[in-house]
């Protein structure tokens, strides 16, 4: 038996959630369970349950709840799980449970062990991580009153202490990345917890992300000032000064083999399908590696079965579990393309973007090579047809692919030997079990006739049963007979089923659930049909509603309680069957002008939010050649506070924007969405995604200047992939279009990028000519930062041609212009050029200083690739100066940075650390 108080009060026996009764009964149970094995006086129980004003009949009510709790314990015992007893003792009651039954006790035991200084640091970190993993939400989440509030406050303090201890232990092990990943969410829950902020800053510093650490300090200082009127404490201030002074940071942890774990959470209240589960178990045992297809109608539980079984089988696949929703039947009509799905799997295995091939066949070959010799489980959910799936099959005997689809994928059975599993509706008994799991066995047993009617009204469809069960669970005062009566009166609309009776019943369930919504929730549900992505956050929902985020959160919560939305972390997902229903409702309820306005608000929010975030990625960017559409009324775009927040926003939303680019019909919107995405995709090395978005932008361009911008960015993306012919064609087209549009600045940028292309081809003299043309055009346009960057390019090409003294002179002039323009990122590039030229002139001290400045500037912008590149060059400069230890330190630091972005340059830099003597300097010019 598992008694859960961390979160809502629950009792789990034999894998089933038992009915814990009304909130008052849960309060009585919790009041006893927080002190298992200890007598709790009746007066204390009354005080904990009712507070200072108990009703006159409190004791009689208490005795009734005690009787029900005893029946609950008896039910667990009959299931063979637990020997709990509730006995009268010393004018009170004692709840005797097996040790470790209550999650609060397990949490306390794990944290006590995790704080034991005699244990190895790795053990302490693991124990505290296990404790934190027990936390499902605020303790006694649904209970009210002073006592429950006090329990929550005390255990929140213990959780915070455990989180601080865990982060400290992980940092001691050199696992800065683990702290960076977990701490921000904890800080959102404990925004005034300075120890957590300090540990996150230490982790960022240890990982070389000092600019982000500085942003964290500024944010916590503002929060403390707003909330308390106080400054950060001495530890945070001292850490801030340490980072400002550039004092050494702890080395990041060594890289480990990436083991993806992408399965969605296991299914709560899973019931039935025993025959199919045993069938899959036998297949894994007897025919390992044979693909499986699971087919059945919409909402029948294909995903639930596959996810539940995948969790059972995960231990057989120690090298990872991959998951993708192929969106084969998404009402938006944009299934996931096979090459996109493979790209996601390659990302999961940390394949560097530069190593990802362009074509589907090459990507599949790389993916299957990665899987060779590994045991990996692939769950390919919601496939449209065999053609979508066939490239994703692993092709190696140690791996298993499980595919779900509404269609019977006979092609996979024939050509790939897949084992077919077809799901029918669950039996009436299984449907009753599913409902009982969700609403509580006791409640279901009390109204068997109503349960039978609900099962019939839901046509035994698991999705419909889950919706009704959620309504029953959140309204315990409503009888099941009352729910059945409501369903009897309901009507709905959906055209997803061929069986008229099934269609009618599912329509009724959806319509019934929809009718329970308040006006705001009903309106938002219909508007969700306009959202293009697989998930959405609160701000995007606010844009759909033209309302502040604070007003939309409770509306989203209402939709979640109604099981019309599912929460996934801080975002929300919508079953495609429900999306189809929302689309139908919107079409029949909302007039076309209103639906158009909803769509414009959402896309306007994405465009303007992306522009704001992009400005933080490159403060010196030019404005787009065409102004974005005006911001629709009532829309509040995101305004990220700093670079980390901008990167986080893009990380959450870029996949939605890509989907919108694929499906948006408004040409202007396509162009602006792609323009807003381009820099982020470049920062992340997602060149293939960039090419897809920019190609759509090019197709939608209405003016020569827009086409030129798309061609220019496409040229850069192809250049990064070393597809030089395509890069050259797009840059030539960009120059023609910019000239046609009279866009002098666009012409200048294109010449600078063309110089880069020629450099890659080793044609330095021609590259110098294009850089000189770029300077002349930037000067004519009055573009100061562009002129500075083009001057640096001239200096660099002089260095490539061996004229190091001229390179230094030109780069110093570039620095002067960049300082005047405030272009610190451009200065980083120029300091790197100066370091290169100075080293070739034998001025090693000057070169070392220049490279150090370049590294510091790149670090400000979280530009990891260029920071790594300049750090490697700094190592070269130290080596040339005869300082072998400093050279090795720099090379190691560069290798670690390359490792962080999964760049193949790491191996080459590591190899330099073994060079015993300075390089031959005969090429240097004094």
From TrEMBL:
What InterPro entries does the entry give? AfsR-DnrI-RedD_regulator (IPR051677), BTAD (IPR005158), OmpR/PhoB-type_DNA-bd (IPR001867), P-loop_NTPase (IPR027417), Sig_transdc_resp-reg_C-effctor (IPR016032), TPR-like_helical_dom_sf (IPR011990), TPR_rpt (IPR019734), WH-like_DNA-bd_sf (IPR036388)
MF terms per GO, please? DNA binding
Residue intervals annotated as DNA-binding region are 1-97
| OmpR/PhoB-type domain ranges (all copies) | 1-97
In the record, biological process GO terms are: phosphorelay signal transduction system; regulation of DNA-templated transcription
Quote the Gene3D superfamilies the UniProt record gives.
P-loop containing nucleotide triphosphate hydrolases, Tetratricopeptide repeat domain, Winged helix-like DNA-binding domain superfamily/Winged helix DNA-binding domain
| CDD domains associated with the record | BTAD (cd15831)
SMART domains named among the record's database cross-references: BTAD (SM01043), TPR (SM00028), Trans_reg_C (SM00862)
Organism domain of life: Bacteria
Record keywords: DNA-binding, Transcription, Transcription regulation
**Family under the similarity heading:** Belongs to the AfsR/DnrI/RedD regulatory family.
Q: What is this protein called?
A: OmpR/PhoB-type domain-containing protein
């Amino acid at each position: 038996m598992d008694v859960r108080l961390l979160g809502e009060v629950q009792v789990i026996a034999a894998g089933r959630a038992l009915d814990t009764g009304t909130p008052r009964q849960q309060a009585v149970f919790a009041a006893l369970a927080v002190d298992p094995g200890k007598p709790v006086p009746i007066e204390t129980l009354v005080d904990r349950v009712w507070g200072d004003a108990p009703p006159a009949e409190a004791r009689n009510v208490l005795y009734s709840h005690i009787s029900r709790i005893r029946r609950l314990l008896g039910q667990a015992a009959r299931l063979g799980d637990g020997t709990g007893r509730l006995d009268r003792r010393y004018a009170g009651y004692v709840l005797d449970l097996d040790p470790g039954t209550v999650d609060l006790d397990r949490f306390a035991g794990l944290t006590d062990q995790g704080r034991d200084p005699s244990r190895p640091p790795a053990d302490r970190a693991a124990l505290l991580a296990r404790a934190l993993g027990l936390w499902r939400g605020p303790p006694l989440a649904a209970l009210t009153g002073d006592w429950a509030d006090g329990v929550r406050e005390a255990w929140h303090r213990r959780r915070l202490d455990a989180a601080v201890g865990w982060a400290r232990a992980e940092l001691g092990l050199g696992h800065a990345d683990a702290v960076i990943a977990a701490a921000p969410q904890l800080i959102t829950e404990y925004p005034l917890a300075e120890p957590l902020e300090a540990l996150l800053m230490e982790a960022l510093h240890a990982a070389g992300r000092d600019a982000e650490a500085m942003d964290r300090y500024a944010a916590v200082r503002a929060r403390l000032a707003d909330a308390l009127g106080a400054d950060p404490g001495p530890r945070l201030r001292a850490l801030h000064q340490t980072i400002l002074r550039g004092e050494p940071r702890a080395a990041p942890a060594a890289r480990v083999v990436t083991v993806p774990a992408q399965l969605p959470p296991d299914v709560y209240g899973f019931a039935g399908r025993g025959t199919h589960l045993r069938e899959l178990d036998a297949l894994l045992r007897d025919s390992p590696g044979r693909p499986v297809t699971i087919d059945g109608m919409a909402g029948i539980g294909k995903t639930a079965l596959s996810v539940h079984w995948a969790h059972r089988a995960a231990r057989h696949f120690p090298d990872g579990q991959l998951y993708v929703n192929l969106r084969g039947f998404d009402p938006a009509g944009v299934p996931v393309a096979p090459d996109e799905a493979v790209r996601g799997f390659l990302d999961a295995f940390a394949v560097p973007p530069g190593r990802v091939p362009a074509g589907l066949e090459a990507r599949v070959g790389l993916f299957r090579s990665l899987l060779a010799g590994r045991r990996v489980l692939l769950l390919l959910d919601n496939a449209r047809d065999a053609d979508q799936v066939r490239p994703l099959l692993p092709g190696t005997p140690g791996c298993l692919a499980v595919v779900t689809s509404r269609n019977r994928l006979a092609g996979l059975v024939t050509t790939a030997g897949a084992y077919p599993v077809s799901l029918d509706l669950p039996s009436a008994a299984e449907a009753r079990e599913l409902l009982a799991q969700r609403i509580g066995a006791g409640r279901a047993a009390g109204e068997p006739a109503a349960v039978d009617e609900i099962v019939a009204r839901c046509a035994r469809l698991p999705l419909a049963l889950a919706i009704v069960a959620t309504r029953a669970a959140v309204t315990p005062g409503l009888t099941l007979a009352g729910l059945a009566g409501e369903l009897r009166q309901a009507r709905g609309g959906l055209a997803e089923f061929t069986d008229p009776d099934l269609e009618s019943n599912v329509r009724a369930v959806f319509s019934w659930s929809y009718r329970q919504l308040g006006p705001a929730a009903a309106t938002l549900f219909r508007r969700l049909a306009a959202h293009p992505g697989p998930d959405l956050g609160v701000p995007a929902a606010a844009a759909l509603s033209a309302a502040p985020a604070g007003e939309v959160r409770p509306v989203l919560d209402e939709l979640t309680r109604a099981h019309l939305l599912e929460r996934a972390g801080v975002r929300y997902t919508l079953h495609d069957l429900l999306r189809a229903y929302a689309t139908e409702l919107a079409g029949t309820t909302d007039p076309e002008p209103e639906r158009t306005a909803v769509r414009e608000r959402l896309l306007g929010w994405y465009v303007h939010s992306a522009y704001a975030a992009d400005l933080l990625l490159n403060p010196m960017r030019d404005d787009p050649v065409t102004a974005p559409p005006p911001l629709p009324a009532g829309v509040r775009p995101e305004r990220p506070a700093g670079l980390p927040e901008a990167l986080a926003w893009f990380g959450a939303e870029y996949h939605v924007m890509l989907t919108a680019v694929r499906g948006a019909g408004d040409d202007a919107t396509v162009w602006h969405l792609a323009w807003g995405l381009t820099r982020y995709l470049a920062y992340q090395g997602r060149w293939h995604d960039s090419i897809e978005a920019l190609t759509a932008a090019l197709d939608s361009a209405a003016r020569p200047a827009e086409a030129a911008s798309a061609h220019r960015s496409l040229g850069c993306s192809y250049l990064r992939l070393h597809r030089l012919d395509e890069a050259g064609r797009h840059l030539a087209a960009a120059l023609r279009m910019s000239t046609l549009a009279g866009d002098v600045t666009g012409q200048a940028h294109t010449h600078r990028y063309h110089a880069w292309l020629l450099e890659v081809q080793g044609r330095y003299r021609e590259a110098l000519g294009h850089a000189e043309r770029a300077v002349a055009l930037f000067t004519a346009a009055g573009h100061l930062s562009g002129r500075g960057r083009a001057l640096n390019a001239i200096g660099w090409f002089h260095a490539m041609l061996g004229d190091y003294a001229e390179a230094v002179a030109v780069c110093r002039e570039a620095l002067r212009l960049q300082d005047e323009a405030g272009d610190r990122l451009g200065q980083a590039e120029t300091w790197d050029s100066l370091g290169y030229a100075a080293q070739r002139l034998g001025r090693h001290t000057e070169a070392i200083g220049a490279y150090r400045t370049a590294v510091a500037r790149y670090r400000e912008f979280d530009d990891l690739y260029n920071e790594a590149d300049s750090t490697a060059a700094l190592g070269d400069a130290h080596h040339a100066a005869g300082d072998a230890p400093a050279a090795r330190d720099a090379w190691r630091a560069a290798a670690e940075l390359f490792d962080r972005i999964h760049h193949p340059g790491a191996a080459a830099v590591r190899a330099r650390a073994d060079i015993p003597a300075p390089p031959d300097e005969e090429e240097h010019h004094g």
